[in-house]
């Protein structure tokens, strides 16, 4: 089943097209394909966890539309995305209460101490976004983003960030932060694959294999 396409089929076509335009020129770690994967994971997890999909689907669609503006201004992309969402949703009959809940879900996907995920829909979008950072996809994104910002894929300099350091400092801990049972179940295989990959990576870097 293509969960992303199932989700998109339940959203207004023109809203999807408008959202897609915000991803022109985005780096490969945060592009439209990343957005589609998060939408698909939200559809899968939301279905299993009995979420309010009227809120979750548009929140997933719009959660990263502020990234281009973030690059220009430095403002948090979640706040930009939440601010842009009402104008985009206005033409499609979403009432103010639903729009407000969509904004909250978008805001909560970027975890902050003052704004932790609270509702089920908050937790699912948070989990879906984090799941896309681990496993084979997560590895690909880590290496792709290193290339975008000019980092080496390996270095003898202990102060130089690399995909291996990204894994050791952040990615290996993501499964512990997930909030829903479905996401934790999905994470197990993704995490295991990632561990195996970087074990092999270190051996090859040392010439052991």
From TrEMBL:
CDD domains: HDc (cd00077). SUPFAM superfamilies: HD-domain/PDEase-like (SSF109604). It comes from Brevibacillus composti. This is HD domain-containing protein. Residues 31-134 form the HD domain. The lineage of its organism: Bacteria, Bacillati, Bacillota, Bacilli, Bacillales. PANTHER family: HD_PDEASE DOMAIN-CONTAINING PROTEIN, SUPERFAMILY HYDROLASE, PUTATIVE (AFU_ORTHOLOGUE AFUA_1G03035)-RELATED. PROSITE patterns: HD. InterPro entries: HD/PDEase_dom, HD_domain, HDIG_dom.
